[in-house]
Amino acid sequence: MAPSPNDLPGGQAHVRPGIGEADFALALAVRWRVFVEEQGVPADLEHDAADAASAHVLAVVASEVVGTGRLVFDADGARIGRVSVLPDFRHRGIGSQIVAALEAEAAVRGFAEVTLHAQTYVQELYDKNGYAVSGPTFQEAGIDHVPMIKQL
Ligand SMILES: CC(C)(COP(=O)(O)OP(=O)(O)OC[C@H]1O[C@@H](n2cnc3c(N)ncnc32)[C@H](O)[C@@H]1OP(=O)(O)O)[C@@H](O)C(=O)NCCC(=O)NCCS
C-alpha cells in the first residue's frame, strides 16, 4: 500500500544511508519524479557521473522511500545535492532531516564544512538549517541557484 503522511510517526521519517544498487534505484526513482517530471530537468542531466562516487541517503516512511539526497566529493570538498521529497510529504521536516543526515556523513568523513547549490526559491530551507550564501546567483539545468556553505 502506498505510504501516506499519516504514517509518519511523530512527523518524522527514518533517514538511512543508501547502500548498493537497489537503494540507488530507489533514490533515482524519487529524483526522477521530482526533478524530471515535476521540475522539467532534462533526464540526461539528472543522473550524472558524480552519482557513482557520492554518498546517498534515503528518507523512509512505512517502508517506502519518499525522499533522498546525496553528498558529492570533489576538489571543492563535500557538496550536498539532489535533495528531494515527494510532494505529499513536504513541509514536515523531512528535507531538513535529509540535509542533517548528509551533514553527519560529511562530518564522519572528516570534512569541516559542506557546500550546496540551493534553488533560489527554496533558499529559506537552507537558511533555517544554518547555511550562509557564499556567492552570486547562477543558472544550473535552467534553474536559478545560489551557492551556500555551512561550517560543521
Ligand atoms: C525542497 C524540498 C526538498 C523541501 O523538502 P521538505 O521536506 O518540505 O523540507 P522541510 O519540511 O524540512 O522544510 C520546509 C521549509 O523549506 C522551505 N520551503 C520548502 N518548499 C518551499 C517553497 N516551495 N517555497 C518557499 N520555501 C519553501 C520553507 O522554509 C519550508 O518551511 P515551511 O514548511 O515552514 O513552509 C522539497 O520541497 C522538494 O523536494 N522540492 C523539489 C526539489 C527541490 O527543489 N529541491 C531543492 C534542490 S536545492
Polypeptide structure, described:
This protein is an alpha+beta fold and 152 residues long. It has a domain at 10-110: Aminopeptidase (3-Layer(aba) Sandwich). It has four helices and eight strands. It has helices at residues 20-38, 43-46, 94-108, 123-128, and strands at residues 14-18, 55-61, 64-74, 77-85, 113-119, 132-133, 138-140, 143-151. Strands 1, 2, 3, 4, 5, 6, 7 and 8 form an eight-stranded mixed sheet that branches. The model has no long low-confidence stretch (mean pLDDT 93).
What secondary-structure arrangement, pairings included, does this model have?
Blueprint (H helix, E strand, L loop, with lengths): L13 E5 L1 H19 L4 H4 L8 E7 L2 E11 L2 E9 L8 H15 L4 E7 L3 H6 L3 E2 L4 E3 L2 E9 L1
Parallel strand pairs: 4-5
Antiparallel strand pairs: 1-2, 2-3, 3-4, 5-8, 6-8, 7-8
Bound molecules: coenzyme A.
List keywords for this structure.
152 residues, alpha+beta, Aminopeptidase, 8-stranded mixed beta sheet, 4 helices, 35% strand, binds coenzyme A
Summarize the entry for a quick read:
The protein has four helices and eight strands; from the N terminus they run βααβββαβαβββ.
How would you spell out the order of helices and strands?
EHHEEEHEHEEE
The biggest beta sheet reads: 8 strands, mixed
Q: Identify the overall geometry.
A: globular
Distance between the termini: 39 Å
CATH A-level architecture of the domain at 10-110:
3-Layer(aba) Sandwich
CA-atom Rg in angstroms: 15 Å
What is the overall pLDDT average? 93
Structural class label: alpha+beta
How many distinct helices? 4
Strand content: 25-35%
Spans where pLDDT lies below 50 across 5 or more residues: none
Q: How many runs of DSSP E, i.e. beta strands? A: 8
What is the quaternary state of this protein? single chain
Helix content: 25-40%
The fold-level CATH name of the domain at 10-110 is Aminopeptidase
Query: Bound compounds, please?
Result: coenzyme A
Per CATH, the class of the domain at 10-110 reads Alpha Beta
**CATH superfamily heading of the domain at 10-110:** Gcn5-related N-acetyltransferase (GNAT)
